[in-house]
Write a structure and sequence with these properties.
Blueprint (H helix, E strand, L loop, with lengths): L17 H41 L14 H24 L25 H5 L4
Amino acid sequence: MCSVCGEPRGGATYPAGVLEVSERRLQEGLAAVRAELGAGLEALRAELRSELDALRALLPPPPPPPPARREPRGPALLRALGTVNALVSSSRAAENGPDAPADGLANRAVARKSHKKTPVPPAAAQGGGD
């Protein structure tokens, strides 16, 4: 009969406790191997760390970090222009007085010359040369 599982065995039988002792020895042996392997791994890690540190010392220093990003000028410029326009509009409205037209600048508007090219008819472009 098996001392571990209790089933009947065919063949050689072991005295009571022999298998338990063998299992205990096996577990102790496994623990010793694990401890030895763990110590070996720690020694290997320490060796690799020192080699890595030596290799890092050979590398050139890292480049300086890139300059800090600033806010793009476009939005800030637009905000500033909007503030200036608002101030100018309010000061002109105050100059024109309460009886002025709603747009406030209608009387001061100067007609600007359009700088767009105007199409020239083909006959006029060639004409006049005799």
